[in-house]
Amino acid sequence: QILMSDPKRNIFGKSERDRYFVNQKNPEGLTYIYMACLNGHVNYVDLLLDCDANHLIKCGKDQFSILDVSVKWNHTKLISYLLFESKFKLDWPK
After folding, report:
1. Buried b / exposed e across 38-70, counting CB within 10 Å, b at 16+?
2. Within 13 A of 73's CA, how many CA atoms are on the CB side?
3. Is pTM beyond 0.85 here?
4. Which of 5, 42, 54, 68 is spaced 20 to 30 A from 34 at the CA atom?
5. pLDDT at residue 94, rounded to an integer
């Protein structure tokens, strides 16, 4: 509800894909979707993708994507969701 009621939710950033709120990084350089993947929360990831979160943004000092961090912490349900089950048909770089 907080994400959907944010007045800046639909303000575009420098590029068309980068939304203001959902893709903003915290002081540690992590996005909301990255933190959700770090902790293995499939439902939060689904919500953030529905709010136009960019799944390709690399975060942290290691510059991991959300798929990288999901694999690193062995969140198998989330990995399966990101690769096969997502309704958003996510494109991943090779």
Report:
1. bebbbebbbbbbebbbbbebebeeeebbbbbbb
2. 17
3. no
4. 5
5. 80
Per DSSP, the residues of 15-70 read: STT-BTTTT---TTS--HHHHHHHTT-HHHHHHHHHTT--TT--BTTTTB-HHHHH
Q: Which residue has the tokens 């939060």?
A: 44
Residue matched to tokens 């096969």 = 84
Tens of pLDDT, residues 52-80: 889 999 999 999 999 999 999 999 999 99
Nearest to 58 by CA among 88, 25, 87: 25
